[in-house]
């Protein structure tokens, strides 16, 4: 799939991997319909992409709102006329164990991570099916393979996204439409700064998530975005962006019950706490 003079819809484009994906697409000559909930960050991404010579439009969109998502294609078509590529990148974090996490926060996470990917895809499916070549790309994470302690909600949402679209890809043939799933790991994130958690431990959880991610996830988003774009061009069904994601995928298959003991036992801080 060539990306020059195509039109891509990208959710969660305000920063991090979303902005990097937008600029990577723009460098390939792909026109962009960008969404985010942060207007200032969204406008900055659109400006940076526009300076690379492509047509851009920015749309404030709450992907958890079904009504807003249903109306979204009607905003894109008058500007761009078509859609060739949809990248579901918008995501969220909820930290905490099974009991402390509130049901309302769990529902919010599923609405942002899972439901938005499903509803946005369904909203653009009629447009995508009119194109000779089209693709839906879902940005997931390492938590779609493994379930770290205290991150059960994120693991659940990422796993469901991965399996939902994997099952769709293996369903009835739809030749022009490709549905790759990306599992990037090690990407320096901005998502943790908008994390939710159980009220009693919210601040502690958010600080821990940010600190751990800053130490462990140091892959520049620009590098991850280039991996994703090369995978889109090659029409790969699944892309494991980082070596850690590849190792985690293999480890979970070999040791599906006890894999979690290895990273925990290798962490001095966790050994001391035990």
Automatic annotation (TrEMBL):
EC category name: oxidoreductase
Enzyme Commission number(s): 1.-.-.-
InterPro entries cross-referenced by the UniProt entry: NAD(P)-bd_dom_sf, SDR_fam
GO molecular function, one term: oxidoreductase activity
Keyword annotations from UniProtKB, A to Z: Oxidoreductase
Domain of life the protein comes from: Bacteria
One Pfam family this sequence matches: adh_short
Family: Belongs to the short-chain dehydrogenases/reductases (SDR) family.
Protein name (Swiss-Prot/TrEMBL): SDR family oxidoreductase
Provenance organism: Paraburkholderia ferrariae
């Amino acid at each position: 799939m060539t990306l020059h003079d195509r039109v891509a819809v990208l959710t969660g484009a305000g920063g991090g991997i979303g902005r990097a994906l937008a600029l990577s697409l723009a460098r390939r000559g792909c026109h962009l319909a960008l969404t985010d909930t942060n207007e200032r960050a969204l406008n900055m991404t659109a400006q940076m992409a526009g300076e690379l010579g492509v047509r851009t439009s920015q749309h404030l969109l709450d992907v958890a709102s079904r009504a807003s998502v249903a109306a979204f294609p009607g905003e894109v078509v008058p500007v761009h006329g078509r859609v060739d590529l949809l990248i579901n990148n918008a995501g969220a974090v909820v930290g905490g164990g099974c009991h402390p996490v509130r049901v309302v926060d769990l529902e919010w996470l599923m609405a942002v991570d899972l439901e938005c990917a499903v509803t946005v895809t369904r909203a653009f499916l009629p447009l995508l099916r009119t194109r000779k070549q089209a693709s839906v790309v879902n940005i997931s994470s390492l938590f779609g393979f493994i379930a770290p302690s205290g991150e059960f909600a994120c693991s659940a949402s990422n796993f469901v996204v991965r399996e939902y679209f994997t099952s769709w890809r293996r369903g009835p043939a739809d030749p022009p439409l490709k549905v790759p799933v990306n599992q990037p790991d090690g990407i320096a994130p901005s998502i943790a700064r908008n994390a939710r958690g159980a009220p009693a431990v919210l601040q502690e959880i958010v600080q821990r998530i940010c600190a751990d991610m800053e130490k462990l996830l140091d892959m520049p988003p620009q590098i991850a975005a280039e991996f994703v774009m090369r995978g889109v061009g090659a029409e790969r069904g699944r892309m494991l962006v980082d070596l850690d994601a590849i190792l985690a995928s293999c480890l979970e298959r070999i040791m599906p019950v006890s894999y979690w003991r290895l990273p925990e036992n290798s962490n001095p801080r966790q050994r001391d706490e035990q």
